[in-house]
């Protein structure tokens, strides 16, 4: 059941009330609409994979930003990968799915001796965009970065971003990258920042619109940590991790220009067109643009 107010409809109503010159302006400034669901670090929590499958149809793009496998789990990595691929096979026909690797997903060494998630090639065979791929969705460019474990893959990530910078051409540019940047509340463990300094430098160089991460499970729940950060013009999000059947998740509407984070500890909203001020706004009810009533268990 869709309960959201349609911004397209709202724009049309506003446009009817405005003189012709304003109407032109409204049309030109509207961003293409892209509704994104970000989850990360499911770590073989199968009920959380079930939740993603159930909610995927409400979004244009569903991002799983790494650490699908739990290397501390009782099952071997290869058995976990087999089950995860079954879930991804169910997800693929429901919406655009984007999958990046995390440090738990590395199953082999490449020719340079660096650990990589070779099974991302099997993900790609399902028609799902994975490590090293770039897709366009509703006018936005999405670049999917692999976890890097050494200088060769790191250079490949640098080249991927450099290449896609040339394709940007005014489009919104979204990165999927397992680790959050260094010295950011999104990489705060409660004791230290544990982020990726190379990512920080790439953000500074390229200024993407959105960077979708995970990796530091505790960051959104810790004092001085957060699920959201702004570095220059770039918004950075880390969905975090929690126990139970519902993963922590972030929903983003690129046209309404809002991002909302949902967890057992509560929900918060960031307005992408405003400067970031903390504390972020607490959400008592789900934003109108969210069409799935299943989202945000604490708000249900
Ligand atoms: Zn993790």
From TrEMBL:
Domain spans labelled Calcineurin-like phosphoesterase: 34-218
Superkingdom in the source lineage: Bacteria
Annotated InterPro entries: Calcineurin-like_PHP, Metallo-depent_PP-like, UPF0046_metallophosphoest
Example of a GO MF term: hydrolase activity
UniProt xrefs under Pfam families: Metallophos
Name the record gives this protein: Calcineurin-like phosphoesterase
């Amino acid at each position: 059941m869709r309960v959201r107010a349609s911004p397209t409809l709202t724009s049309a109503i506003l446009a009817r009330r405005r003189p012709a010159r304003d109407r032109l302006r409204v049309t030109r400034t509207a961003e293409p609409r892209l509704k994104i669901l970000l989850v990360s670090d499911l770590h073989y929590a199968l009920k959380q994979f079930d939740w993603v499958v159930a909610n995927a149809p409400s979004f244009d793009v569903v991002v799983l930003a790494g650490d699908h496998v739990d290397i501390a789990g009782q099952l071997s990595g290869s058995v976990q990968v087999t089950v995860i691929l079954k879930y991804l096979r169910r997800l693929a026909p429901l919406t655009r799915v984007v999958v990046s690797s995390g440090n738990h997903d590395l199953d082999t060494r490449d020719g340079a001796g660096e650990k990589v998630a070779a099974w991302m090639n099997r993900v790609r065979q399902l028609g799902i965009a994975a490590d090293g791929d770039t897709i366009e969705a509703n006018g936005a460019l999405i670049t999917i970065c692999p976890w890097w474990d050494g200088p060769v893959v790191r250079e490949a990530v640098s080249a991927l971003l450099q290449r896609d910078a040339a394709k940007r051409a005014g489009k919104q540019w979204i990165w999927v990258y397992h680790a959050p940047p260094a010295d950011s509340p999104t990489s705060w463990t409660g004791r230290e920042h544990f982020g990726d300094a190379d990512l920080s430098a790439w953000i500074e160089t390229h200024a993407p619109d959105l960077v979708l991460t995970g990796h530091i499970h505790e960051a959104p729940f810790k004092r001085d940590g957060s699920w959201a950060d702004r570095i220059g013009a770039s918004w950075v999000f880390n969905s975090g991790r929690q126990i139970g059947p519902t993963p922590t998740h972030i929903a983003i509407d690129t046209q309404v220009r809002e991002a909302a984070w949902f967890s057992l500890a509560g929900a918060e909203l960031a307005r992408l067109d405003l400067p970031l001020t903390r504390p972020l706004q607490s959400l008592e009810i789900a934003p109108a643009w969210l069409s799935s009533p299943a989202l945000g268990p604490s708000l249900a």
